[in-house]
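Appendix C: a fully annotated inverse folding record. The material below is reproduced so that readers can follow the format used throughout the book. The structure is listed first as tokens, followed by the designed sequence.
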């Protein structure tokens, strides 16, 4: 029986631990502090993040990185993107050569513009890196509600191994070689979800949200393909699939934060109200740097950046988006 370490005991890490435990694997779940670990061992629950969900007794809970990492055949990193590099450094003394390390964190490192798997590969040379992404709110996965996700890896054999590990009657896994596209879709959709939430908070309707989702995936794909991602990826589960669920669901912390921004809250007030990491706030900074680096037009993402960091009025942002120069919908279609 494979032993798997889950590095990060937030809602998504805990949901994956429950899934993998149900799939028959021995799972060790790492918490960032002994206080958190002790509370989880005693209560076997995360009432604020996963209300009504019990964490099975078979799942080992620890604050010891050595215990979580040593001897494991697969490691799944599920910490906020801003903490991935620091966490990988903590993992490094205990990592075995050739171990599979799956990034389930969604984001882009602001300083280096690395994806999370690229951060892990830099800090942990010699690992077999992979990524897991798709429309997968932890609140639903923990309750065994069905979804489908994508595993990306450099090696098809690694991807297939992980496919068999994660696959269950409620968690269907597809595989792909396009790790970059998978991670860009997973990171940038959070920015578009902020925009969708802002539109909701301002009282706009379904038409506006549909337009934001549709044009949002165009922006993600435009930048992603310039960086080397594949169009098929952005049309798939980790592109349009993850974008739809993040823009439409109240499980989405990015959408919830956007709603508050649309109602007039400041960024700080919205973050405090949501009381969870809002990844889109970090990803939008990296997205703007990537747009400049790759000379790519990202009008929706640019307006979200302006609202968050330049004090731009959301109503003015909508007006700017609506009154931009006339465009064709797809420049590759001939008349």
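Designed amino acids, in order:
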């Amino acid at each position: 029986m494979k032993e798997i370490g889950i590095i990060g005991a937030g809602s998504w890490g805990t949901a994956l631990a429950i899934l993998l435990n149900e799939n028959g694997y021995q799972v060790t779940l790492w918490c960032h502090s002994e206080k958190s670990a002790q509370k989880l061992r005693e209560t076997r629950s995360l009432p604020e993040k996963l209300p009504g969900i019990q964490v099975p007794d078979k799942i080992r809970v620890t604050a010891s990185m050595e215990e979580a990492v040593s001897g494991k055949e697969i490691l799944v990193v599920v910490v906020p993107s801003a903490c991935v590099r620091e966490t990988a450094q903590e993992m490094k003394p205990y990592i075995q050569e050739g171990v599979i390390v799956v990034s389930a964190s969604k984001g882009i490192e602001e300083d280096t513009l690395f994806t999370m798997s690229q951060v892990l590969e830099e800090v942990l040379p010699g690992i077999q890196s992979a990524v897991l992404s798709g429309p997968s709110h932890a609140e639903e996965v923990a309750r065994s509600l069905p979804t489908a996700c994508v595993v990306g890896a450099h090696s098809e054999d690694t991807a297939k191994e992980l496919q068999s590990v994660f696959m269950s009657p409620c968690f269907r896994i597809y595989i792909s070689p396009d790790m970059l596209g998978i991670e860009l879709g997973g990171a940038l959709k959070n920015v578009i979800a902020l925009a969708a939430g802002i539109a909701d908070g301002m009282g706009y309707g379904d038409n506006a949200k549909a337009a934001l989702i549709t044009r949002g995936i165009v922006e993600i794909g435009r930048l992603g393909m310039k960086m080397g991602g594949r169009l098929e990826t952005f049309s798939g589960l980790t592109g349009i699939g993850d974008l739809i669920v993040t823009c439409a669901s109240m499980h989405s912390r990015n959408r919830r934060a956007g709603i508050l921004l649309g109602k007039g809250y400041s960024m700080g007030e919205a973050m405090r109200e949501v009381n969870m990491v809002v990844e889109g706030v970090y990803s939008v900074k990296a997205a703007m740097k990537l747009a400049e680096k790759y000379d790519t037009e990202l009008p929706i993402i640019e307006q979200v950046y302006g609202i968050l960091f330049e004090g731009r009025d959301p109503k003015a942002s909508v007006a700017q988006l609506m009154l931009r120069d006339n465009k064709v919908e797809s420049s590759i279609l001939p008349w």
